[in-house]
Amino acid sequence: MRRFIAIIMLAVAINATAQLPASAATGAPRVFIVDGHGWGHGRGMGQYGARALAAAGTPWNLILPKYYSDIRLAKTAPRQRMRVLLTHGKGVVVKGDLRAVVSTVGRPIAVTKRVAMYFWIARAGNATVIQVARSRSGPWHKVRTVPPRTVTITGMKAAGIVEGSTTRWYRGTIELVPSGRGLDVIDTVDLDHYVAEVIPREMPAWWPIEALKAQAVAARTYALRVAAVARAIHRNHDICATTACQVFGGYAWTKNGTYQILESRSTNTAAFATARYIMTYKGRAILAEYSSSTGGYTTSGGVPYLAPRPDPWDASAPLHDWTETISAAEVHAAWPSVGAVRDVRVIARDGRGDFGGRALRVQITGSRHTIRVSAASFVATFGLPSDWFRLRGTAAPRTAMKFTFDMGEGTHNGAVPYLQQRLHKAGYFPKGIRYSTYFGPITQSALQAYQRANHISATGYLGPKTRARLNATS
Q1: Of 269, 291, 313, at which residue does a domain stop?
Q2: pTM of the predicted model, to two decimals?
Q3: Closest listed residue to residue 286, CA positions, set 302, 269, 270, 309
Q4: N or C, fewer C-beta in 10 Å, the chain?
Q5: What pLDDT was estimated at residue 25?
């Protein structure tokens, strides 16, 4: 489930040359202008709408019914736990604190004594090997080789999963479960602690508390519904830790030697103030989907409680309206069988809202063939913010994009890859790193290098002086 959230409000304004509809342009369009609304799939709660409602004084229990139809609020059973799939690999390095115990089938294999230890658990053919060291760099000492069975790490306040220069810290019990030729790394954690660690990954912690509470109930409900399905088919975990489910980043991380708590007082308050509350439909937890911005109208989730509904509260979202460009060459590269691209148009919509609603199918006409593809495929191919869009053609390429708002580290927004692209073009964003919607340390470092080269204070923050410089050299 794609969900994106803008941590610092940002928009990108684009000045365009005159355009004609694709079908009326003189000759084949070289560039297609894509106008759209919203960010994400648009099912269920719109996070920006929830924010606006909360800012206007609406409590969380009245925000949720504006997005989910015919629901009831109920309390789930106490002391529930979630099994969260963190990662999968052939070998995993785990850092345990002074009380960590590594065991299998209930029998201890290794324990920490006086100092924190590193454990390297890895698959080796039909066996699992456990090694220990006092340093990430070793030396490593093998303590046991066991048949491929679950290895459990317990007893610690927190366990760190080490990946390169980053260690993510998790509460609860860590299990390493044989899966294929590798290991599934699973964190078993209390449900409300799970929710507390999801909220700040899915919604900015500084947003109004009632919006955070609505997010807490939606996240808890979604988790329990997904877990019920996973348990029914006997999966070894209840839910994943990525945007494919809900982002679960642990409660802290150590990155390049710097320790940072990822939870916050506000999001913890939201989680525990709504403890055990979920949304139900006919007595069952609903699949409480949500996305950043609905664009002004939610779309059907195929079930009664995810019925389409107007969302006038979304108007202030940074990507309530957006514009992108796609060249005919890019379309040809994605579907070369059509030949030279002559026209691209939406041929089916859901009928709700601007442009006739969200796109369902797209027709691509070329010199050799005409094909029809799903709007979902078109969106995924070109990384569009949502499936609510229209296309216009122009014989001339667009003028450059202009940055109109500030942003800094921690931002998740569809405009971030434009900044990364501009920094890459200027020679500051690393080669081989994929553009993303996240303004993380790599983007910050690249921006600082750009600022130093242009005699701007190297804050790593896209402020007025840096924006003016980027816009002037676009």
Answers
A1: 291
A2: 0.78
A3: 302
A4: C
A5: 38
